[in-house]
Design a protein that fits this description.
alpha/beta; single chain; seven-stranded mixed beta sheet; Rossmann fold; 12 strands; Helicase, Ruva Protein, domain 3; 12 helices; three-stranded antiparallel beta sheet
């Protein structure tokens, strides 16, 4: 019997995949009497996930819809999807009519995405292979003539790096919806006085207003991670940044003090070449530990002692 096949939505084999195997979506079998479409569960990945890339593929349609709904992109919005993977979120975003950039560092993902979202059918979707940490967000925003709206399931091992990269291009970004390890999310939304409060809390809340949308069970991923995830919404803000005279020094101050979080600021400031006698105008803060300072306190402290920075 004559049988031919065509790759559709990520599967290149006419055989149903084994669990953890290489099939997702659907494939098309051409028979003498017509064409048959065979659909697979979202639980199957179209390629073997790489641990080095932190790949965990979402296979729950309800969670995917909730993530996209939390961003609520409108036609004309410029949406950058970080780590598009198998295209679960990409498909929902494409339906919204936004100008979508589906980006992934993995060439296998890009191949799947290009097959699923051909330019002739999806002229508003652009698929690209790119490491987000080397992406010029400002140039992309200028190319599209609008600030970027970001969305993605961030790899657990580089979540902080990605966020810091985004903050360095603050003006190019409007907002973002991110899924990440729940422990990292707890650090981002932490308030002063708790053990989770630290560098990531202060720098994130300096750049953005933050809201937790919902938590996500590890059971909705392939492969199953060992931790829960959280979905956070970040909206970039300028009010707190505008109060900081020297942001570069502010960032070094935050990192230096939390690098020795058990010590008082009078001791940790020595890393910046600032002795207690040099910062008498900030004496009210010097006996405190960093987790006791609010973001406004850090801003005030930075402005008070910036003149004494010798690094």
């Amino acid at each position: 019997m004559l049988l031919t096949q065509r790759f559709v939505h990520g599967c290149s084999s006419p055989q149903p995949p084994a669990r953890g195997g290489t099939g997702i979506g659907s494939y098309e079998i051409s028979l003498p009497f017509g064409v048959v479409f065979v659909h697979y569960s979202m639980r199957y990945a179209p390629y073997i996930p790489k641990k080095t890339l932190g790949q965990h593929f979402l296979h729950d349609a309800n969670i995917a819809r909730n993530i996209v709904a939390a961003l609520d992109p409108l036609p004309g919005d410029v949406v950058l999807e970080i780590g598009s993977g198998t295209g679960v979120l990409t498909a929902l975003l494409a339906e919204r009519g936004c100008r979508l950039i589906a980006m992934d560092i993995d060439a296998r993902a890009v191949e799947v995405l290009q097959e699923r979202f051909p330019e002739e059918r999806y002229p508003h979707v652009r698929v690209m292979q790119q490491d987000v940490l080397s992406l010029d967000l400002k140039a992309m925003a200028e190319e599209y003539g609008a600030p970027l709206r970001l969305i993605g399931n961030l790899p657990y091992n580089i979540t902080s790096q990605i966020l810091f990269h985004i903050f360095d291009r603050h003006d190019a970004v409007r907002d973002g919806i991110f899924m990440m390890q729940r422990e990292v999310a707890e650090r981002i939304i932490a308030a002063p006085g708790c053990k989770e409060y630290g560098i990531l809390s202060v720098l994130t809340q300096t750049h953005a207003s933050v809201r937790r949308c919902f938590n996500v069970s590890p059971n909705v991923f392939t492969p199953r991670p060992n931790v829960w995830s959280s979905v956070l919404y970040l909206r970039m803000e300028n009010d707190r940044l505008a109060q900081i005279r020297n942001y570069s020094f502010f960032r070094r101050l935050v990192k230096a003090t939390f690098g020795q979080r058990r010590k008082t600021l009078s001791n940790s400031l020595k890393q910046l070449g600032i002795m207690p006698g040099d910062a008498t105008n900030a004496a009210a803060f010097l006996s405190l530990r960093p987790e006791q300072l609010t973001i406004t306190d850090f801003s005030t402290l930075s402005n008070l002692i910036n003149a004494y920075d010798r690094t």
